[in-house]
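[09:14] KT: can someone run the structure on this one? pasting the chain below
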Amino acid sequence: MTRRMSELFDGYHANYRDVVQSSIDFSGLPHDFFMRAKADLLRSLIAQRLNTERPDMLDVGCGVGSLHPLLHGMVGCLSGIDVSSASLAQARAANSGVDYREFDGRSFPFEDASFDLVTAICVMHHIVPAEWTHFITEMRRVVRPGGLVCVIEHNPYNPLTRLAVARCEFDRDAVLLSAGKVRKLMAAGGLREIGARHFLLLPWDTKPARRLEDALSGVSLGGQYAAFGTV
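[09:31] RB: done, structure tokens below
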């Protein structure tokens, strides 16, 4: 599984953004719009759920590091791991100051309790379901007491999300999982204060649209969701 994923994303590292953009062109929105929405959601979670102003963060399955420029000033030490060495090479070239390390697909290359916040953004749908429990356990292992585990994923109940996944070349074997499933995995893994927030419901980057989307975040309508729990 790890070797297949490594070879897959090594092959797409140079045109990753273009492939993603082609899968969402029907929305009329640029890839950056979706990246900013994720960064804004993380900023909100940090303010609401963590006691530290600039948490040390690990991004699991970071790919080419597209999100990382948007995290400047939001987090302290930032690390990223991925199974694709070619993607990591591109991430290093684009983002100085980030600690990028190769990931064997099973054990995170960090000691216990190394971070305040660990994220996996659109990663779990690439992992075989039999490994989901172990993956959540690894996320929990490297988070400090009081820290946060956050999984951002595609919402399988949103038809436009399913269309985008079907159009994406490297999502052909994706197994989408609901926010409820991730919350159950987190509970089984010993996390507490577990919650979920749906987002990317409205295709407008305006304050009224964002306020309305926030009000509807508890409803399973948004294109993606964040499920999170405290260690």
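[09:33] KT: thanks! The first helix runs from residue 2 to 12.
[09:34] RB: yep, looked fine to me
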